[in-house]
């Protein structure tokens, strides 16, 4: 790991490159763009299509291998594996949709899993690396990266409609070739760096600039999509729009360029006094360690890397001193806020509460996302591209806003981030009831609300995991909890929504849907599904409140000084 001073350029170069890779990792969100071709060209019914949607979510979120690999291998190797999965998976799908080869259903199911599993490899590499590079701003970093990930659907929709002429086969080829090429270009810049010991004075401004650039990009993508739908923009205007989109995507790279042109001078005494520490171990020399008292000395709010348990009883302090002198060797279990091993975390109630809450919020939301085209058609919307773009933009707003708002309140009021999961899941109850009612004019409003609430789940879960269980094995924890997404898709989308949809279509058309591709029309196609999802989110809201009350003392310790204070890792 490179030993770098605070405010050095490589972490910001890595964040700028991570933005592109996070966009690429959103390739799984393109399923609604080519799902209609899988249904019409290959003759699948809605249940078969829904199960392909489950494969899409399983591949995207089963990331235990990437999580383990992120602790053992450099980021470039994790990105390389993801690029290979993208090439082979989408390559097979392209062969089928372009009718180059006739492939069996089971092979396409596996290919879709492999293709979207590239998302897990790419997002794990950039997220783990940048969370460790910016440990004091993990909520902000998670919000930015997952926000750009939420915009990926709109970015790909822009490319799909303006460059690829709404061709599913061209889109699949673009994914099979374009994403790997991007990975090969960017993998060198995403690398681990030793984080700064305290908050750099210019860091907040840099984050604000990145957040503002992402908001401008989101508004631009939404505006161009709506204009293209209304006025059918000419080819020249479309090419200009794509060029502007690329420039906006490059905006975060302006930060390291600015830092290169206007380098911050640091005095020699300041550099010597400034301790450098990684997220999981101290890099102070032995001589310095002898002169410090990390366990007993109170620390400031900006450069506190000692224990956050200063208020322990005198007996525990005496035990720590005895351990330090070698008189006692005690192996204790980590406390919440310290680095956990996976085997230590899975026996904690907080871990499974967070998993259940995420399962409810994301699992129900992805059910709507996977069936968004069919939901729109059932309610009389023929062109569902705007629905997808609206959901994508609001998903981005939720991810970015969830990171910003939770970071503000956790620093100023020490309010646990999970309280915002409770609030958004309560709003999701209302949203699903709006979908079920199918009242004229509510479809777009319900889609927007759901997109925001869905995005918040991501930007809250990620920093919460790192704060409760540490960054040392963060990749494994993050990807394990992410399994709630495909599990929710399997239960709510594959086994519930697809079954009800096909039965309702059979009633309307009086045919056997095992060999039919007819569509279901009317509110009854998904009404029961939405009512079930509303009930499930009610349970999720209650669990979110329970978890928030349990972990409130942890956040009071971690953010007591108004900024994050890294606890000492346990020796286990």
Automatic annotation (TrEMBL):
UniProt KW Cell division keyword: no
Annotated compartments: Membrane
SUPFAM superfamilies, per the entry: MFS general substrate transporter (SSF103473)
Region of interest called Disordered, as start-end residue ranges on this chain: 279-307
Entry keyword set: Membrane, Transmembrane, Transmembrane helix
Main location: membrane
Transmembrane regions: 76-97, 106-128, 171-190, 206-227, 233-255, 351-373, 385-406, 418-437, 443-465, 477-501, 521-547
Membrane topology listed for this record: Multi-pass membrane protein
CDD domains given in the database record: MFS_Mch1p_like
Segments forming domain NFD4 C-terminal: 348-551
Highest taxon in the source lineage: Eukaryota
A Pfam family hit: Nodulin-like
Residues annotated as domain Nodulin-like: 11-257
Protein name as catalogued: Nodulin-like domain-containing protein
Source organism: Xanthoceras sorbifolium
């Amino acid at each position: 790991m490179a030993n770098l001073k605070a405010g050095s350029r490589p972490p910001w170069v890595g964040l700028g490159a991570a933005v592109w890779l996070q966009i690429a990792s959103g390739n799984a969100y393109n399923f609604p763009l080519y799902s209609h071709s899988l249904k019409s060209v290959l003759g699948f019914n809605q249940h078969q299509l829904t199960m392909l949607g489950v494969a899409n979510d399983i591949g995207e979120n089963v990331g235990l291998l990437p999580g383990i690999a992120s602790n053992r291998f450099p980021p470039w190797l994790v990105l390389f594996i993801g690029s290979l999965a993208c090439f082979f998976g989408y390559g097979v799908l392209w062969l089928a949709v372009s009718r180059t080869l006739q492939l069996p259903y089971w092979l396409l199911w596996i290919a879709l899993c492999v293709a979207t599993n590239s998302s897990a490899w790419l997002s794990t590499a950039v997220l783990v690396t940048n969370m460790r590079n910016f440990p004091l701003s993990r909520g902000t970093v998670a919000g930015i990266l997952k926000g750009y990930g939420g915009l990926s659907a709109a970015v790909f929709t822009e490319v799909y409609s303006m460059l690829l002429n709404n061709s599913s086969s061209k889109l699949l080829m673009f994914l099979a070739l374009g994403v790997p090429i991007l990975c090969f270009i960017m993998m060198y810049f995403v690398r681990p760096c030793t984080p700064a010991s305290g908050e750099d004075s210019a860091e907040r401004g840099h984050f604000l600039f990145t957040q503002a650039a992402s908001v401008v990009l989101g508004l631009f993508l939404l505006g161009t999509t709506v204009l293209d739908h209304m006025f059918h923009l000419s080819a020249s205007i479309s090419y200009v729009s794509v060029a502007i989109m690329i420039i906006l995507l490059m905006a975060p790279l302006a930060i390291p360029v600015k830092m290169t042109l206007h380098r911050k001078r640091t005095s020699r005494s300041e550099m010597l006094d400034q301790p450098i520490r990684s997220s999981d171990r101290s890099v102070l020399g032995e001589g310095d360690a002898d002169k410090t008292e990390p366990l007993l000395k109170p620390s400031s709010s900006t450069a506190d890397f000692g224990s956050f348990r200063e208020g322990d009883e005198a007996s525990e302090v005496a035990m720590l001193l005895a351990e330090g002198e070698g008189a006692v060797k005690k192996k204790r279990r980590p406390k919440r806020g310290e680095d956990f091993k996976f085997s230590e975390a899975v026996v904690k109630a907080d871990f499974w509460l967070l998993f259940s809450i995420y399962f409810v919020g994301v699992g129900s939301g992805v059910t709507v996302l996977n069936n968004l085209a069919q939901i729109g058609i059932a309610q009389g919307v023929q062109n569902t591209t705007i629905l997808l773009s609206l959901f994508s933009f609001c998903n981005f707003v939720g991810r970015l806003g969830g990171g910003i708002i939770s970071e503000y309140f956790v620093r100023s009021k020490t309010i646990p981030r999970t309280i915002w999961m409770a609030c958004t899941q309560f709003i999701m109850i209302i949203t699903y009831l709006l979908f079920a009612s199918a009242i004229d004019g509510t479809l777009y409003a319900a889609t927007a609300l759901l997109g925001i609430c869905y995005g918040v789940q991501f930007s809250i879960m990620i920093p919460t995991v790192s704060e409760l269980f540490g960054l040392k094995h963060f990749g494994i924890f993050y990807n394990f909890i992410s399994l709630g997404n495909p599990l929710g898709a399997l239960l709510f989308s594959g086994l519930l929504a697809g079954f009800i949809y096909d039965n309702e279509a059979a009633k309307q058309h009086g045919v056997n849907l095992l060999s039919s591709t007819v569509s279901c029309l009317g509110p009854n196609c998904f009404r029961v599904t939405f009512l079930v999802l509303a009930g499930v989110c009610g349970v999720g809201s209650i669990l979110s409140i329970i978890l928030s009350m349990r972990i409130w003392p942890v956040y009071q310790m971690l953010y007591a000084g108004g900024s994050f204070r890294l606890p000492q890792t346990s020796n286990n």
